[in-house]
Amino acid sequence: MQETFGSTAYSANRYAANARALAAASIGNVLEWYDFAIYAFSATILARHFFPRADETASLLATFATFGVGFVVRPLGAVVIGRLGDVRGRKAALLTAMFLMALGTMAIGTLPDVQAIGSWAPVLLICCRFLQGFSGPVPTPS
Protein backbone atom coordinates (compact mmCIF):
# COMPACT_ATOMS: atom_id res chain seq x y z
CA MET A 1 0.00 0.00 0.00
CA GLN A 2 1.41 3.33 -1.03
CA GLU A 3 1.21 6.20 1.43
CA THR A 4 -0.33 9.30 -0.04
CA PHE A 5 -0.43 12.77 1.37
CA GLY A 6 -3.97 12.51 2.69
CA SER A 7 -3.68 8.98 4.08
CA THR A 8 -3.93 8.17 7.77
CA ALA A 9 -0.64 6.22 7.73
CA TYR A 10 1.20 9.23 6.28
CA SER A 11 -0.24 11.50 8.97
CA ALA A 12 0.67 9.08 11.76
CA ASN A 13 4.25 8.70 10.49
CA ARG A 14 4.65 12.45 10.14
CA TYR A 15 3.22 13.00 13.62
CA ALA A 16 5.65 10.45 15.12
CA ALA A 17 8.61 12.06 13.36
CA ASN A 18 7.59 15.51 14.58
CA ALA A 19 7.10 14.21 18.12
CA ARG A 20 10.59 12.67 18.14
CA ALA A 21 12.14 15.89 16.82
CA LEU A 22 10.29 17.93 19.43
CA ALA A 23 11.39 15.58 22.22
CA ALA A 24 15.04 15.69 21.10
CA ALA A 25 15.07 19.48 20.83
CA SER A 26 13.37 19.80 24.22
CA ILE A 27 15.92 17.55 25.89
CA GLY A 28 18.76 19.57 24.36
CA ASN A 29 17.19 22.81 25.54
CA VAL A 30 16.64 21.51 29.07
CA LEU A 31 20.25 20.34 29.27
CA GLU A 32 21.46 23.73 28.07
CA TRP A 33 19.46 25.62 30.70
CA TYR A 34 20.54 23.13 33.35
CA ASP A 35 24.15 23.88 32.44
CA PHE A 36 23.51 27.62 32.76
CA ALA A 37 21.91 27.14 36.18
CA ILE A 38 24.80 24.99 37.44
CA TYR A 39 27.33 27.62 36.30
CA ALA A 40 25.38 30.41 37.99
CA PHE A 41 24.97 28.48 41.25
CA SER A 42 28.66 27.62 41.36
CA ALA A 43 29.88 31.11 40.40
CA THR A 44 31.25 31.89 43.85
CA ILE A 45 33.24 28.66 43.91
CA LEU A 46 34.55 29.25 40.39
CA ALA A 47 35.52 32.81 41.34
CA ARG A 48 37.64 31.55 44.25
CA HIS A 49 39.38 28.85 42.21
CA PHE A 50 39.85 30.55 38.84
CA PHE A 51 39.91 34.30 39.55
CA PRO A 52 41.42 34.71 43.03
CA ARG A 53 41.77 38.38 43.88
CA ALA A 54 41.79 40.45 47.03
CA ASP A 55 38.41 41.87 46.00
CA GLU A 56 35.79 39.11 45.97
CA THR A 57 33.39 41.25 43.94
CA ALA A 58 35.95 41.60 41.14
CA SER A 59 36.46 37.83 41.15
CA LEU A 60 32.73 37.24 40.91
CA LEU A 61 32.39 39.79 38.10
CA ALA A 62 35.21 38.07 36.19
CA THR A 63 33.38 34.77 36.60
CA PHE A 64 30.15 36.22 35.23
CA ALA A 65 32.05 37.88 32.38
CA THR A 66 33.39 34.43 31.53
CA PHE A 67 29.81 33.18 31.59
CA GLY A 68 28.91 35.98 29.15
CA VAL A 69 31.60 34.88 26.68
CA GLY A 70 29.40 31.94 25.78
CA PHE A 71 26.63 34.26 24.66
CA VAL A 72 28.92 36.35 22.47
CA VAL A 73 29.90 33.34 20.37
CA ARG A 74 26.36 31.96 19.98
CA PRO A 75 25.69 33.61 16.60
CA LEU A 76 28.83 32.01 15.14
CA GLY A 77 27.73 28.63 16.46
CA ALA A 78 24.26 29.16 15.01
CA VAL A 79 25.74 29.79 11.57
CA VAL A 80 28.13 26.81 11.64
CA ILE A 81 25.79 24.30 13.26
CA GLY A 82 22.86 25.60 11.21
CA ARG A 83 24.88 25.01 8.05
CA LEU A 84 25.71 21.52 9.30
CA GLY A 85 21.97 20.96 9.74
CA ASP A 86 21.35 22.10 6.17
CA VAL A 87 24.03 19.82 4.75
CA ARG A 88 23.96 16.75 7.00
CA GLY A 89 20.48 16.94 8.49
CA ARG A 90 18.81 17.86 11.74
CA LYS A 91 19.99 14.78 13.63
CA ALA A 92 23.68 15.40 12.89
CA ALA A 93 23.39 19.05 13.89
CA LEU A 94 21.56 18.25 17.11
CA LEU A 95 24.01 15.51 18.09
CA THR A 96 26.97 17.79 17.33
CA ALA A 97 25.53 20.61 19.42
CA MET A 98 24.77 18.31 22.34
CA PHE A 99 28.21 16.65 22.16
CA LEU A 100 30.03 20.00 22.12
CA MET A 101 27.96 21.26 25.05
CA ALA A 102 28.71 18.10 27.03
CA LEU A 103 32.41 18.32 26.14
CA GLY A 104 32.63 21.92 27.35
CA THR A 105 30.77 21.07 30.56
CA MET A 106 32.98 18.06 31.26
CA ALA A 107 36.10 20.12 30.61
CA ILE A 108 34.98 22.79 33.10
CA GLY A 109 34.43 20.08 35.69
CA THR A 110 37.92 18.65 35.20
CA LEU A 111 39.91 21.89 34.90
CA PRO A 112 42.67 22.39 37.45
CA ASP A 113 42.52 25.65 39.38
CA VAL A 114 44.90 28.62 39.53
CA GLN A 115 47.04 27.00 42.24
CA ALA A 116 47.73 24.03 39.97
CA ILE A 117 48.37 25.62 36.56
CA GLY A 118 48.53 29.35 37.22
CA SER A 119 47.14 31.83 34.72
CA TRP A 120 46.19 29.06 32.28
CA ALA A 121 43.22 28.15 34.46
CA PRO A 122 41.09 31.23 33.60
CA VAL A 123 42.16 31.00 29.95
CA LEU A 124 41.03 27.38 29.74
CA LEU A 125 37.80 28.22 31.55
CA ILE A 126 37.08 30.91 28.96
CA CYS A 127 37.84 28.42 26.17
CA CYS A 128 35.39 25.93 27.68
CA ARG A 129 32.69 28.60 27.92
CA PHE A 130 33.48 29.56 24.33
CA LEU A 131 32.87 25.94 23.29
CA GLN A 132 29.64 25.78 25.30
CA GLY A 133 28.41 29.02 23.77
CA PHE A 134 29.31 27.85 20.28
CA SER A 135 27.19 24.76 20.76
CA GLY A 136 24.38 26.64 22.51
CA PRO A 137 21.87 27.19 19.72
CA VAL A 138 20.02 23.95 19.13
CA PRO A 139 19.10 23.99 15.43
CA THR A 140 15.51 23.17 14.56
CA PRO A 141 14.65 23.67 10.90
CA SER A 142 11.17 24.80 10.00
Write a structural description.
There is one protein chain. With about 140 residues, the protein is mainly alpha-helical. The protein has one domain (about 25-135). It is built from 7 helices and no strands. It has helices at about 10-40, 45-50, 55-70, 75-90, 90-110, 115, 120-135. The two termini are about 30 Å apart.
Topology, element by element:
Elements: H1 8-41, H2 43-50, H3 56-72, H4 74-88, H5 90-110, H6 114-117, H7 120-134
What tags apply to this protein structure?
single chain, 7 helices, mainly alpha, 142 residues
Low-pLDDT segments, ≥5 res:
none
Number of helices: 7
Number of domains: 1
Structural class: mainly alpha
Question: How would you sum up this structure in a few lines?
Answer:
This protein has 142 residues and is mainly α.
